[in-house]
Amino acid sequence: MIVNSHRFGPLEIPEDKIITMERPVLGFEKLKHFCLIEMTELAPFHWMQSTEDPTVAFLVMNPVIFFPDYRIEINSQEIAELQVTDSASVETYVILTIQKKKSDISANLQGPILINTANNKGKQLVLVNSCYYVQHSINEAADQMEAVPDRIRTEELVPA
Fold first, then answer.
1. Cis geometry, peptide bond prior to residue 14 (ω within 30 degrees of 0)
2. Does residue 154 lie in a domain region?
3. Residue 8, domain member (yes or no)
4. Domain count within the chain
5. Under the phi-then-psi rule, with left for phi > 0, alpha for psi from -120 to 50, and beta for the rest, what region is 153?
6. Which of 10, 57, 115, 131 could form a disulfide with 122 if both were Cys (CB 3.0 to 4.6 A apart)?
7. What is the pTM (predicted TM-score) of this model?
8. 10 three-class SS
9. What is the mean pLDDT of residues 50-57?
10. Distance between CA atoms of 140 and 143, rounded to whole angstroms?
11. Could you tell me if residue 61 is inside a domain?
12. Cβ distance 106 to 138 under 8 Å?
């Protein structure tokens, strides 16, 4: 399948890599299909590109990279919607926001995205009564870690 992307141009994505959102990203309820774009030079970040709107792509990452104690409780109904049979097949991502100063990036730990890699069903959760909120600083988290590569803190990591 050819996915048009405003940021990356046309991308060829295998059909079996298209993610169907069972519960869409808040504010983007009409968009149900996405793909993850992994680029070595942007690791540990990825782009979650809409296959329906070329202008919509979210910068995402696995939250435990910078927030190793990040834990969420998922009820059985949430698991059932994703048709999870093996918890090891569920990947968690959080949407990142690039602030005015491009080197300042925050993570929305209150609205994680779960993807069942066994069937490519995904959903965004909204955590209530949790200690997480929508803006956790990546820079502050990186400063608290011991062996963080310098390139993670550079403006060049995140394209304009």
1. no
2. no
3. yes
4. 1
5. alpha
6. 115
7. 0.86
8. strand
9. 97
10. 5
11. yes
12. yes
